[in-house]
Each structure stands twice: as structure tokens, then as C-alpha cells.
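User: I'm preparing a small set of examples for a lab meeting where we compare how different chains pack in three dimensions. I only have the primary sequence for this one, and I'd like the structure in C-alpha cell form so I can line it up with the others. Please keep the answer compact; I'll paste it straight into my notes.
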Amino acid sequence: MDKNRILVLGVGNILLHDEGVGVRVIEELQARYEFSDNVEFYDGGTLGLRLLDPITGADWLIVVDAVQNGEPPGTIYRLDADDLNKRVTFKSSLHQLDLVETLAYAEILGKRPHTVIVGIEPADISPWGLELTEVVQARMADLCERVLGEIQEAGGRYRPRASEDLSQRNTAAML
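Assistant: Understood. Below is the C-alpha cell output for the 175-residue chain.
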């Protein structure tokens, strides 16, 4: 059995274009790869404090999110939890404030996992749209690669799904 319990948490609101990129990344990774038993994926949406239980059950937390930091859209970031605390005042999304608060509660409980945030600068977080913008969509492969690297660093393993698995998923999606 693998040692570290790794939680890959996609957060954001999928109704606000690029704001939902974290959720879209975990959907993409789960569709394309198989992971070792110690890797769990969670669609955190905008749940905030309701994520305390899954977060405190992990040894490593990899958060995937849109990160507004004033760089050109499509810029990819890697932040640790302390960086998130410093930069949260520049964010426009309330769920990121909730994430900082949730991590603070986990620390008070003595159960805060090692945390990294893999994010991307959004181009559009306006309501209402389910689609990612072209610039963010064009960086999805790079963003997924960054998350896969973090999973490996945390002690997780992955492999591409068999091609017949992907074709069956695509066929089922078309039905």
C-alpha cells in the first residue's frame, strides 16, 4: 500500500467560465489516467469549510484552481499554502478565502496536510458560461502535467488509461 494519502481537490464555480478550471482539470485527469490507491480526487466546487473532513484526511493536498495574480491569462502558478495566505487579498473569489480558513482550521486540529496550489490565470470569470476560454483551454494539457508532477512528488503513481477505455467513454458520452 502507498504511504501518503493524496487528495487532488479541484475548486471553483463551473458556471463562471475559467473559474471552474480546477474542476475541469480533475475531470480530465480521471478520464485519461488510472491512479494508485493513495490518490483521491474531489470536486470541491465552492464548498469552503465543508471540505474540512476530506482535507484533514489527507497527508498531501493538491488544490487546482483559477488564480488571479495580474499576469497574462494562461499563466500557470505553483503556490504553497503560505503563498496562498499572502496572495488571497488579490483574489476575487470567495471560495479561495474559504480555502484559507479551512486550512487554518485543519492546522488548529493538527491535521493540515502538506499543501500546494496549482493554478492558472483566468481570462474570463464572468457569469454565465460553462466553457473555458480559448487561452485557458489551450493550457489544459500543461496544467494537467503540472498536477501529475505534483502527484508523483507526493508519492502517487499514474498510468494512461487503455485506449479501449477512452473509446468506450467517448462512445458512451455520444449516446
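A couple of notes for your slides: Helices lie at 21-32, 52-56, 81-87, 94-108, 134-138, 140-154, 163-174. The first helix runs from residue 21 to 32.

User: Perfect, thanks.
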